[in-house]
Structure formats: C-alpha cells, structure tokens
Amino acid sequence: MAHLSFFEKPGCAGNARQRALLEAAGHTLERRNLLAEPWTREALLAFLAPLPPAQWFNRSAPRIKSGELDPDALDAEAALALLLAEPLLIRRPLLRREDGATLVGFDTAAVDAFVGLPDAPAGRLEACVSASGHCATPEP
C-alpha cells in the first residue's frame, strides 16, 4: 500500500469520496489544502507538465462552467498564470506518492495503475457535487 499526499479542496464531497476509495484500498493519506498551498510555478508543473494545458483545469470551477474561461483556448503560460493566481481552477485531486511520482485527477483506471484501487467504480470521479448538483461547500 502507498502513502500519498492528497491535495484537495476541504469540504469537497467528490474529494471525500476519492479519499474513502483510497483508504478502503489500504492507502494512507497526507491531506493537503489545494487552495492554501503556497504553489510555485515549479511545484505546480511537477504535477501538470505531462498533460496538455486544457487538462490542468477543474471543469467544475464556476468560471469555467459559466463560460467565462475557456481552458481549451489557453497556452501553457497563460494557463499556469491563471492556476497560480486562482487555485480553485486546478484540477483535483493532485496525488503524489512517496517516490515523487504524481497524478492529476481521479480517473479510477489511472489511480489503479498509479497505486492500486481494486473494486473501484469505473470512470472519472472528479466532480465536487452534492445532491443538488452544486459544490457541497461554498466557493471561496
């Protein structure tokens, strides 16, 4: 079993569901507040660099859902500047194993390959929603 740094939005129902799956699989988590983390360009790119910039974004963020911001139209520099200025836009969770390997988001097949996640439902479990379809906690 792995020990992971788990960067989340506190109070997010989606992150709670993801944590529960990881813990049920026997993994231990160091929970980190994604919104309060003192992100630097280098620290954030350690997670994001392997992905295209459009995949760096939390598609449930209010500015994206409203159409105010289109991640598909941004280059890497513009995307990184936005994420550093507004961490709520960062796709979550961010996962880091003790060996330094990282993963962005919670596609169950990718998480299974990353640390092992037997008996998890298939697909992406990234939404932060309540029964009403909105984030379970107010946005900062």
TrEMBL record:
<dbReference type="InterPro" id="IPR006503">
    <property type="entry name" value="Nase-assoc"/>
</dbReference>
<dbReference type="InterPro" id="IPR006660">
    <property type="entry name" value="Arsenate_reductase-like"/>
</dbReference>
<comment type="similarity">
    <text>Belongs to the ArsC family.</text>
</comment>
<protein>
    <recommendedName>
        <fullName>Nitrogenase-associated protein</fullName>
    </recommendedName>
</protein>
<dbReference type="InterPro" id="IPR036249">
    <property type="entry name" value="Thioredoxin-like_sf"/>
</dbReference>
<dbReference type="Pfam" id="PF03960">
    <property type="entry name" value="ArsC"/>
</dbReference>
